């Protein structure tokens, strides 16, 4: 799942499509809580590229992160599928990093000996709209 740098419409980068990695060095970030796997993954990716994020605030959900960015508390990094409404309404802008791909692999785990129930099948069908490979399950 491709991740993007997310800024609010009042941010200096709002008119841009891509930014250099070095631009992140001076930014304040709003992030998931420290115990979040998402946070651990993201910090490892940033550190790998020499970015030591300054954390302005921590939240427990993508929705809270989006609201914090809209309020101007900082920038964040999220997958675009969490941003559709805010991107359409131009409350947020999703930017790519020049020369860096923040692509996160997500995995589904299930018991092969137990067939999918109707709720699980409905969930997978919903996910398949974004991730077509799930149609093959």
Quick check: average pLDDT?
A: 91
Strand sequence of the main sheet, in spatial order? Answer: 2-6-1-5
Element string (H = helix, E = strand): EEEHEHEHEH
Q: Outline, from the CA principal axes?
A: globular
CATH architectural label of the largest domain: 3-Layer(aba) Sandwich
Residue windows where pLDDT falls under 50 for at least 5 positions? none
Q: What radius of gyration results from the CA coordinates?
A: 17 Å
Multimerization state: single chain
Q: Could you give the count of β-strands?
A: 6
Q: Which CATH class of the largest domain is shown?
A: Alpha Beta
Question: How much of the residues is beta strand, in percent?
Answer: 15-25%
How many domains is the backbone divided into?
A: 2
Write out key terms for the chains shown:
single chain, about 140 residues, D-Maltodextrin-Binding Protein, domain 2, two-stranded parallel sheet, 4 helices, 6 strands
Sum this structure up briefly.
The protein has 137 residues and is an alpha/beta fold. The chain contains 4 helices and 6 strands, in the order βββαβαβαβα.
């Amino acid at each position: 799942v491709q991740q993007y740098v997310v800024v609010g419409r009042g941010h200096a980068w709002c008119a841009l499509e891509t930014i250099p990695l070095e631009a992140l060095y001076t930014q304040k970030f709003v992030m998931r809580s420290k115990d979040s796997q998402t946070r651990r993954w993201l910090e490892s990716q940033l550190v790998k590229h020499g970015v030591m994020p300054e954390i302005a605030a921590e939240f427990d959900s993508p929705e809270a992160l989006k609201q914090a960015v809209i309020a101007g508390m900082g920038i964040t990094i999220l997958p675009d599928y969490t941003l559709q409404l805010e991107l359409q309404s131009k409350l947020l802008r999703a930017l790519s990093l020049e020369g860096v791909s923040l692509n996160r692999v997500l995995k589904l785990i299930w018991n092969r000996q137990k067939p999918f129930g109707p709720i699980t099948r409905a969930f997978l069908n919903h996910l398949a709209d974004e991730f077509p490979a799930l149609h093959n399950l």
